[in-house]
Structure formats: structure tokens, C-alpha cells
Amino acid sequence: MNEVKPLGERLKWWRERRGLSQLDLAGIAGTSQRHLSFIESGRTGASRELVLRLAAALDLPLRQQNALLLAAGFAPAWRESALDAPALAQVSSALDFMMAQQEPYPALVVDRRWNLLRANQGAVRLTEFLLGAVPAGPINMAEALLSPDALRPTLVNWEEIALYFIRGVQSDALADGTAETRDLLRRLLEFPGVAALSQTMLAADPQVPVVVMHFRKGPQSLRLFTTLATLGTPQDVTVQEIRIECFFPADAASAEMMRGWVRLPPR
């Protein structure tokens, strides 16, 4: 939904995407169904305040709120800063702190579309263990996980992990409505076996609290689970789209292996 479209067409697209009637959306946004109908049909415009109320009622990401404002002829409400910009200095420092605290276990900072922004030394050591070296150039973690030329051959339970991951990207594509996320989903589905896998259902094990990533390199096995965190109350597009993924050992042997990589004592 990044294409340049009139406000009414864009608004109707999001309303239907959210499964709301005109009456529902009008009620939440504090306007009349008649006024909303006129906006969607292009018969009338909307004030900046009403556009923001409609965007909030639709639970739009900040990037899409800006797009809605631009379509209505207004300036964006939310800035989009580079992660290394002075305005995000404290956020950047907090990210570095979190990644340092995660050592010796891996931690990554990625954007909305899983492009790698930062990694701690634990993540570098894990990559070197699995692949022999850290790939040069920009890295997309989604593609690295699903590609047969990257991490896929090292994952014993690749199908299980891939299914959960591809469904997460599908949810992202529904939530943000951007061409970039749709393009990422398309690229992922083009990897061998992924499209067919996305249509299947894997049996859940109620005895296991989280899905574990089981890596194997030669005779060595490594079992990890992950957490995903976001930054609260964002008022910058970049800040809202950042994700921090931390990896934790799922058993004592995996913990010992990773601590051994840096010769840290047990804790």
C-alpha cells in the first residue's frame, strides 16, 4: 500500500483490511458514518486531526499514518531518523547495552523486514560456528534462515522453524501493508519448499513451552530459543520498527558450549 493513492481509497483499503464497517470505524474515530462515506468516495476531504484519529482507530503503524497524512495533503506527523542520528543517541546506547548484557549468548537488532542492523559478539561467534565466517555485505536474517545456501542446512528442525517464521512474515505483511514487506514475503516463498510448507500444519507438542531451534554442525548440537523485544511508546518510525532478538540456550549442554567459546565460568 505504498503506491500513491487518494485518501479515500487508501482509507477504505485499511478499513476493509481491519475488518471494520464504516459505522464501526466512524464510531471509534468519533465521526459520522456519512462523513466517512464521503471521505472514502472522495466527495470530501478530512482535517489533519480526523486523519490522525482514523489512523489511530485503524491501529496503523507510524509509517502508514504518515502515508495517510500525505494522501490527505498534510505533512507527516512522525519523523524517520537514521539509527545513528543524534536524535536517537539514547536509543542507540540502550540497544548496545542490551546486546552487551546478553553476552556470551547471541543478540541481534533488526528492522521491520529482518535486515540486520547490529549484532553482538555472541551472534558473531554463533555465525562463525555454523557457517565458518560471517557473510560479507548486508544481511537479511529472514533470507539467511530460509535459504538453502545459508542457515537452513544447519537446522535439524528446519521445517518447524520455517513454518513459524513464514507465518510471522505473513502477519507482518497483513499488519503494515507495505510493498517492501510483501516483496520480502514473495522472496521467502520462492525458496525451495517454503511455499508448500506455508500451507501445512505441524503438530504442536504441549509439553514444550517454546519452539527450540536445533542447530547441528558435524557431531555438535546446539539448541536455542529466542525472545523478541520492541521499544515502547515510539514516536519515530525507525524506533517503532526496531526489533531486538535475543537467543538463549535451551539446555545445559548448549549453555556450556557457548560459554566455552569465550571461556567464561559457569553462572
Overview of this structure, please?
- The structure is a single chain.
- The termini are far apart.
- The model has no long low-confidence stretch (mean pLDDT 92).
- The chain has 13 helices and 5 strands.
- A 5-stranded antiparallel sheet has the order 2-1-5-4-3, sandwiched between helices.
- It is of the alpha+beta class and 267 residues long.
- Helix 1 crosses helix 3, helix 4 (48-57) packs antiparallel against helix 5 (62-71) and helix 9 (158-176) runs antiparallel to helix 10 (179-189).
- 25% of the residues are buried.
- The protein folds into 2 domains: 7-71, 434 Repressor (Amino-terminal Domain) (Orthogonal Bundle); 86-262, Beta-Lactamase (2-Layer Sandwich).
Structural class: alpha+beta
Mean pLDDT: 92
In the predicted model, the low-confidence regions spanning at least 5 consecutive residues are none
CATH class of the largest domain: Alpha Beta
Keywords:
267 residues, alpha+beta, 434 Repressor (Amino-terminal Domain), 2 domains, 5-stranded antiparallel beta sheet, 48% helix
